[in-house]
Structures are given as structure tokens and as C-alpha cells.
Design goal:
The complex is a heterodimer of chains A (about 220) and B (about 625).
Chain A (H helix, E strand, L loop, with lengths): L3 E9 L8 H15 L15 E3 L7 E12 L5 H8 L7 E9 L6 H4 E11 L4 H13 L4 E6 L2 E6 L4 E7 L5 E11 L2 E2 L2 H7 L8 E9 L2
Parallel strand pairs in A: 3-11
Antiparallel strand pairs in A: 1-3, 1-4, 2-3, 5-9, 5-11, 6-7, 8-9, 9-10
Chain B lengths: L1 H7 L26 E7 L3 H4 L3 H11 L4 E7 L3 H9 L18 E5 L6 H10 L15 E5 L15 E3 L3 H18 L7 H8 L5 E2 L4 E5 L5 E6 L7 E2 L25 E4 L1 E2 L9 H5 L4 E2 L2 H15 L3 E5 L9 H12 L5 E3 L7 H10 L6 E7 L3 H6 L6 H13 L4 E8 L6 H22 L4 E8 L16 H14 L5 E5 L2 H11 L5 H10 L13 H10 L4 H5 L14 E2 L4 H12 L22 H23 L1
Parallel strand pairs in B: 1-2, 1-3, 3-4, 4-5, 9-19, 10-13, 13-14, 15-16, 16-17, 17-18
Antiparallel strand pairs in B: 5-6, 7-8, 11-12
Helix pairs in contact in B: 3-6, 5-17, 6-7, 11-13, 13-14, 14-15, 17-18
The chains are: A alpha+beta (about 220), B alpha/beta (about 625).
Chain lengths: ~220, ~625
């Protein structure tokens, strides 16, 4: 067994932001195939390549900090891997690093704690007002919200999903908020929900994932 | 444009349908193009991106340096609402340019129930739907695909039709356009000048240059071409398949056929009398095995797909299909390549072939006996016997399949209640074979469609079964196949009725299609959107009766609405096949048996040669006999 586990860091821009998580996974597999990368397959009745990301990236969201683990067989040089895969990346996808990780280290999703976002929206509010609304959210004991899921209304508390919120410098028309939201199996915060809880009705102009925080 | 698109995409389902940017898609610079073509597919992205014809034409046009081709599909109703709400015109996926900015918009018409989507797409693009209302400043609207062999129902909306194989005809059309553009001062060539010259290209039909006169009873009296227009427009037929597309677009979204596709042959020699594809794609053109293998090697490298479909109308008939499959498995078996073989014949050889390429679970095996009795299978010239079917089913169960899916049609010409009871008997026998091998796990699914007579087939004159009779025959099946490991499903007969009406309609149906669209009909091919009552209303508004088109037995000497559009097959051949059908006489496979004199021996060199050598043999025999 000469299996190798590589951890890739990648980002996607506006051009690819409407690709769903499932489609991204297919995209990766096809890019690896084109590059002739030796994917390792799982055992079992219907073997599949072992590719997994830290957390699905929602449709419409761009990112510069995604993490993906891929298992290869046989092992190779990670930098050669980058050279091979680079020409097979569709426009809008950018691979920034590939590093070997221990085969037995815990999976990415199990280590993920928080995701950080920058969310831009059409302001129409003075900076002081935005700051005070953020303050209000952070000091609220709970933020009951409801959202539609599979056609049914789901009630939940947004507050424990918010770790931190800060205003970023914006222009007169656009404001940007930095958010650190919980992202683990028990629940993940959504940036657009935070905006809605702030009383901002208009849909966000841009959501970018800027950080994934893993446990140590 | 992108900003307004970007503003609505987060609010619609599957926004990836409209974003473009897929691997191998081509976005050229508009400044450098002498001809800009929008390839429009009147159904949703996932359906259109599974169409091999679209991939072929996209490749063919974009290979030319001074030509660009981009794609556009029918927006799903939620997207349409959002677009209309923000005054966003229909745009191309590659460069997000509005359709109205292209020189030519070419629609692919492969199914009659997409016609209202064509109108809707033009309207969404801000282009008047009727040819007569469009001016020099609008793009030329053209169409091709299997439906245009009877273009008449769409002739009020489309400026020019490409009949038959698109490759040569579209190349010539592009040449003509660029030449004409060169002469005209800035801007597009004069539309009428262009169309007048286009009619000289084989396979090009410009409906405005043909006047149709009707008898009082509504049948066509005559079709009169304008001066210098051919009285018969013969389908364009390429002599040999062009090299396979090896850089097809790889969609992000999962499409209907989400895999690589290589056309291994075009056309079919089996002469099934109900099958339009069997007549309008003749003659058979095969891609040599070495070429298929090379194409697959390149396409896998260029796409990253792990599944390839060997496309043809009858895979088992490809010469050395076993060798091809064997080579593929030995080359790519270790790389987990899946091979799919559509349209397998009903015989043990085909089942064993399927076994070879099968990976993973053997769920169900599909056979299409089409009819329930030998007599009726002889009528439709489906050369398969009960013994063939039962032996194939036996093989499938022996090799580990647990389910069988069977396709039948009801309402085939000369069908009687006994023929439908024949389906019941046959299905029961299949089920018994299954029980013997797989016990209670054996499942048999029966899918029944209503027969739709199509233009350019030997059954083009026959009436479609009417509702009362259909109901009675359905009841025979329902009663006969209740329970016992058999499940029964129907194609919606109303859909088949509309299909039959449009497939053999005349020009007057243009008003009906427009009326239906104005009443809100679109995505008629989707059961959740199909609304037959609206169509009924549209017919009534126009004073036309669907039954006149669908349920009327037409005399063999009636002038059909498509009589000026030729598949290359002779009317005499179709009439002879019609009579042989009535007598339940079989017609051979012209690849292994005799030439059937279908008419192509006059225009296709290979067929002509075959025909002449056959005549010589017959003459030789006569001489021998006379000498002895």
C-alpha cells in the first residue's frame, strides 16, 4: 500500500460561484482524471474516489480558503501534482497549495469549528448604525429565526451559531461585514441569515468565505 | 449584462444552468467574428446538453476561425419570471450577449412538444415570433433536427430549415453568409438576397418561397414553389461521418446523459415501419473501429469522463461490436471506464454483450418487442420472435439480472384486441421465466406508449388510434396484468395525440401553436407543465380539429403537407412498404439481405453500386436458366 493523502487549498471566484457542492465534487474528479492523477478508490461494492472537502460551499458564495483532501495511489511529489493539475482547472478555480498530511489524521469535516465570511450589501445605513446593530446581535441572549427547508418551516436559534461580527471598511454605497460563524456537524451559520437578523432586507451583493478554522 | 444576471440568479433554481463557463466551452472575441451563431435548444439545459447534434454543430462552427457559436437553452419558468421581471432579454451562456445581437439563431427541433418553447425563447429575446414581422435588424432564425422533415407547422416562425445531416449544409450556409456579408456594406447581408441564394444549397428549405393551396376539406391541394426554388427539397446526406467531437463541453450540472458520447454509426438498415429515425437517417454510415477507439482515447483525456456511450440506432448491428467492447475493456478496464450501449437488439448475443460491460448492480434489462403477437410484429417489420425474446430474457436472468423492462406500443396499424391480449400473454411468459430463475425477486415492468404515426415512414397515412378504442385496449392490459410481479406504466396518451397532430400537421397549425403559447403553453414535454385543455382551446380558437391530423386515415394519393420535403426515399417505396405491412410481409435488412430499392440507390453511390450488382446477379441467373 503506497497511498498518499494530499491537502489542497483552493479558491473559487465569481465565475464558478453557481456550481453546487455536489457538482464541485464531480468537477474535481474530472479534473483529476484529465490530469492523469492516480486517484485511490474506496473499498466495497461501488468504489469511489476518496475526495472530501472541509465544508460544502453554498451556491452563490466565492472563497479563497477552501480545503480538500484527496487520496492518491501511488504516492508522488506534491509540487509535481500541482503542475499536473493546474492546466486542468476551469477558469474561476485557483489551486494555491498542496501538502501531504498523515493518512490517519482526522477528517477535515471532523476538525472544522468555524467558517469566516465577508458579506457585502447595499448599505443605505450609516456606519454607526451598522455597528450598533452588530452589537445588538452579539449581546442578544437568543435570536429565534425560521427558514424554509425542504418546503417546511424550521425554527432555530441563530445566536449560538455566531462567534463574532465586525464591520469592515466599506464605501458609501456598499458595506461589508466580517463574520465568524460556527461550522460543525451540530450546525452551521449562514451569512445571509445574519444579515436578515440585522434587519437588512436586500439580498447580499457578495459573500466570500475568507477563513476555515480547524481545531488544533 | 452579467450584473443584472447575477442579481437574479441567486433567486432561481439551479442557477448553474445559466452561468456558462464549463470546461471546453468556447467564448470567442466578438470583434473577430464574421458570423455569430446562437445554437438554441428549446428545452432546459440538462436536456439540451445531452444532445449530440448540438455538440457536433458547436464544434463544427467554432473550429472556423471567423465564426463563433454560443449556446442558449429554454429558461425554466422560475428563471423566465425573474428575467421578465427585470427586463432581462434571453442571453447566450458563453458571452452573455442577447440573442438579438447574433446574426443567426439556430434551433434544434427534435421533438414536436418543444415547439411552444421556440416561440417563448424568441419572445424572451425580444425577437418577433413570426418571420413576417421580423426585419433586417433581427437575426435570421433557422432550424434543423428530425422534426423539420415536416417543417410545415413551424414554417411561419422560422426563416430557413436545414433538412437532414447538418454538417455540410451548415458549413455551406456559413460560407454563403460570410460571402454575402463581405459584399454588403457594414452590417448584415440583405435577408432576402441571402435566402434567395440559400435555396440553392442542398437540404435548405425556405418556406416563404412556397405557396400552399388547400382543398375545401382542408387537405393540401398543391404546394407551389416560387421561381428558381426547387420543387423538392431533398434532405442533406453526408457521405461519411466527420471526425468525432473530442472536446465536448463538460457540464457542471448533472445532465440527462452525463457522459462522453461517440457516434459509432448513423442510420439503421432494419426497416422497422413505425420508426422515423430508421428512414430519415439512412443510409447507414459506420465509423471504423480504429477511429472509434482513437476518439474515445482523446475524449476521455479531454473531459475526464469515466463513462462513454457508443451512440447509434442499433448498437448490436455495429460490425465487430464485440471486438470494440473487448478492446475498450482491455484498454480502460483498470481505469474504471463505464461503457453504455443504447438500443440493443433482442438476442442472447446482445445480453452477453451487456453482461460484459456491466459494472456494479444488475438492476433491470430493457427490451422493446413493441407488439404482442407475431402477426403484428410482422406488420411493423420488427424482426423479433417470441422465442428470441424469451431466450434473451432467460439469458438475462441466468446472468444475474433481476428485472426486465419491456416496451410496447398500442394503436399500431391493423391492431386488434387479440394483439393486445398477445402483450398480456407475452408478459406473463416473461414473468414465468423470471420466477423460475429469480423467484419472487424477479420483476417485470411494462411500459406502454401510444403509437404516433410519423411523416416519411410507411405509416405516414395511417390514423392514430382514437380515445374510445385506446381506453378499451388499455383496459385489456390493466385487467390482464394485474399484480403478480408485473408493473404497468403508460405514456400519457394526450401527449401522444398532440405529438401525432403536430408531427403530420400543415402550415395552418402555426396559428394553433401561437395560440397555445399565448394561452401559456410551454415545456409541453414536461408532464407538470403539459396542459391539453389549453391546446384544445387553441385548436378551437383557430377553427381546426386535431382529429383531422391525428385520427384520419389518409388516402395513399393525398398530397401530404410535407410532399415537397424529401427524405430521399421514394414515395413508391413507402407505398409498397405500407402494402406489405397490411399483408404482414417482412422486409429484409438491406445490409445482409437484398437492396430494398428505397430510393437512395439513385442518390447514394454505395447504394447504387449495390443495387446494380444485385440487378446484374438476377440477370445473370436468368441467362443461366435460359441456357440450360
Amino acid at each position: 500500500m503506497n497511498v498518499q493523502r494530499l491537502r489542497l487549498t483552493f479558491g473559487r471566484d465569481e465565475r464558478l460561484k453557481y456550481v453546487s457542492h455536489l457538482d464541485m465534487m464531480r468537477l474535481w474528479q474530472r479534473a483529476f482524471n484529465r490530469a492523469g492523477v492516480p486517484l485511490a478508490y474506496s473499498q466495497g461494492f461501488s468504489p469511489h474516489p476518496r475526495i472530501s472537502t472541509a465544508a460544502p460551499l453554498a451556491v452563490g458564495v466565492t472563497s479563497n480558503c477552501e480545503l480538500l483532501d484527496v487520496f492518491l495511489e501511488p504516492a508522488g511529489d506534491p509540487s509535481a501534482f500541482l503542475d499536473r493539475i493546474e492546466p486542468e482547472m476551469p477558469p474561476g478555480l485557483r489551486l494555491t497549495a498542496a501538502a501531504e498530511v498523515a493518512l490517519d489524521s482526522p477528517s477535515l469535516p471532523s476538525r472544522l469549528r468555524f467558517a469566516e465570511y465577508e458579506t457585502a450589501f447595499a448599505a443605505g445605513l450609516p456606519a454607526a448604525e451598522i455597528a450598533s446593530r452588530l452589537e445588538a446581535l452579539l449581546s442578544a441572549p437568543s435570536l429565534p429565526r425560521e427558514r424554509l427547508r425542504d418546503g417546511r418551516v424550521k425554527h432555530y436559534d441563530l445566536r449560538p451559531l455566531i462567534a463574532d461580527l465586525r464591520p469592515r471598511d466599506g464605501s458609501a454605497r456598499h458595506a461589508t461585514i466580517w463574520m465568524r460563524l460556527q461550522a460543525n456537524p451540530s450546525g452551521s451559520g449562514r451569512p445571509e441569515e445574519v444579515l436578515a437578523a440585522m434587519g437588512i432586507e436586500a439580498p447580499p451583493l457578495r459573500i466570500t468565505r475568507v477563513g476555515l478554522i480547524l481545531d488544533q | 449584462m452579467w450584473e443584472s444576471i447575477d442579481a437574479i440568479l441567486p433567486t432561481v433554481s439551479k442557477p448553474g444552468r445559466y452561468a456558462g463557463g464549463e470546461w471546453n466551452s468556447i467564448a470567442k472575441d466578438w470583434k473577430d467574428a464574421d458570423l455569430k451563431v446562437a445554437l438554441a435548444y428549446p428545452d432546459v439545459y440538462e436536456v439540451g446538453m445531452s444532445n449530440l447534434g448540438l455538440a457536433i454543430l458547436y464544434d463544427l462552427l467554432n473550429r472556423r476561425e471567423n465564426v463563433l457559436a454560443e449556446r442558449v437553452f429554454a429558461p425554466w419558468p422560475d428563471m423566465e419570471t425573474a428575467m421578465r421581471g427585470s427586463d432581462l432579454p434571453l442571453f447566450s451562456l458563453e458571452t452573455k450577449n442577447p440573442l438579438s445581437a447574433f446574426d443567426i439563431v439556430g434551433f434544434s427541433l427534435g421533438y414536436e412538444l418543444t415547439y411552444t418553447n421556440v416561440l417563448n425563447m424568441l419572445d424572451l429575446a425580444g425577437i418577433p415570433i413570426r418571420s413576417a414581422e421580423r426585419t433586417q435588424e433581427h437575426p435570421l432564425i433557422i432550424a434543423g433536427g428530425s422534426c423539420v422533415l415536416n417543417a410545415e407547422p413551424m414554417s411561419e416562425f422560422v426563416d430557413l430549415f436545414v433538412l437532414g445531416d447538418g454538417e455540410d449544409a451548415l458549413d455551406r450556409l456559413a460560407n454563403l453568409y460570410i460571402r454575402e456579408r463581405g459584399q454588403a456594406a457594414p452590417g448584415r447581408p440583405d435577408k432576402d438576397d441571402f435566402l434567395r441564394r440559400a435555396v440553392e444549397i442542398p437540404g435548405i428549405y425556405v418556406p416563404r418561397y412556397y405557396d400552399v393551396e388547400y382543398h375545401e376539406d382542408g387537405t393540401v391541394a398543391q404546394i407551389l414553389p416560387w421561381p428558381n426554388c426547387p420543387s423538392q427539397i431533398v434532405r442533406s446526406i453526408i457521405a461519411a461521418l466527420r471526425p468525432s467531437v473530442t472536446r465536448p463541453i463538460v457540464p457542471f450540472l448533472e445532465t440527462i446523459h452525463d457522459r462522453a458520447a461517440v457516434e459509432i454509426q448513423r442510420g439503421c438498415t432494419r426497416a422497422c415501419r413505425f420508426c422515423q429515425a430508421g428512414t430519415i437517417y439512412r443510409p447507414l454510415r459506420e465509423r471504423p473501429k480504429e477511429e472509434v477507439l482513437a476518439a474515445i482515447r482523446d475524449i476521455l483525456k479531454n473531459t475526464g469522463y469515466q463513462e462513454v456511450s457508443l451512440v447509434s440506432l442499433s448498437s448490436s448491428d455495429y460490425p465487430d461490436i464485440a471486438g470494440l467492447v473487448g478492446d475498450l475493456l482491455s484498454c480502460y478496464g483498470s481505469q474504471r471506464l463505464n461503457v453504455s450501449l443504447p438500443s440493443l437488439r433482442i438476442d442472447s448475443f446482445s445480453v452477453e454483450l451487456a453482461e460484459e460491460i456491466q459494472r456494479g448492480k444488475k438492476t433491470s434489462f430493457t427490451f422493446a418487442p413493441e407488439a404482442g403477437t407475431q402477426r403484428l410484429r410482422d406488420v411493423i417489420n420488427k424482426g423479433v420472435t417470441e422465442e428470441d425474446l424469451l431466450r434473451s430474457v432467460e439469458t438475462a436472468f441466468q446472468l444475474g439480472w433481476q428485472g426486465i423492462k419491456l416496451y410496447f406500443m398500442i394503436g399500431l396499424p391493423t391492431e386488434t384486441d387479440e394483439d393486445v391480449e398477445g402483450i398480456v400473454h407475452l408478459v406473463r411468459k416473461v414473468r414465468d421465466v423470471g420466477k423460475r430463475h429469480a423467484g419472487s425477486r424477479a420483476s417485470v415492468r411494462v411500459s406502454v406508449a401510444t403509437f404516433v404515426p410519423k411523416a416519411h415512414t410507411p405509416f405516414q397515412w395511417t390514423a392514430q388510434i382514437d380515445e374510445t378504442l385506446l381506453a378499451r385496449r388499455q383496459e385489456i392490459l390493466r385487467r390482464g396484468l394485474r399484480g403478480g410481479g408485473v408493473s404497468l406504466s403508460w405514456h400519457d396518451p394526450k401527449v401522444s395525440r398532440l405529438e401525432a397532430t403536430l408531427a403530420r400537421g400543415d402550415r395552418r397549425l402555426g396559428s394553433v401553436i401561437e395560440a397555445a403559447w399565448r394561452l401559456g403553453c410551454k415545456f409541453d414535454a414536461w408532464s407538470e407543465h403539459f396542459d391539453f385543455d389549453k391546446w384544445r382551446l387553441a385548436f378551437a380558437e383557430c377553427g381546426l380539429d386535431p382529429a383531422f391530423y391525428a385520427h384520419r386515415q389518409r388516402p395513399l394519393d393525398e398530397v401530404t403537407p410535407w410532399s415537397h420535403l424529401s427524405s430521399g426515399l421514394s414515395p413508391a417505396y413507402l407505398r409498397s412498404e405500407y402494402r406489405r405491412a397490411a399483408a404482414a410481409t417482412g422486409t429484409g435488412d438491406c445490409r445482409v439481405d437484398e437492396c430494398n430499392n428505397c430510393g437512395l440507390q439513385k442518390s447514394i453511390p454505395a447504394c447504387g453500386e449495390r443495387h446494380r450488382s444485385q440487378l446484374a446477379t438476377i440477370r445473370g441467373r436468368k441467362v443461366e436458366r435460359a441456357a440450360t
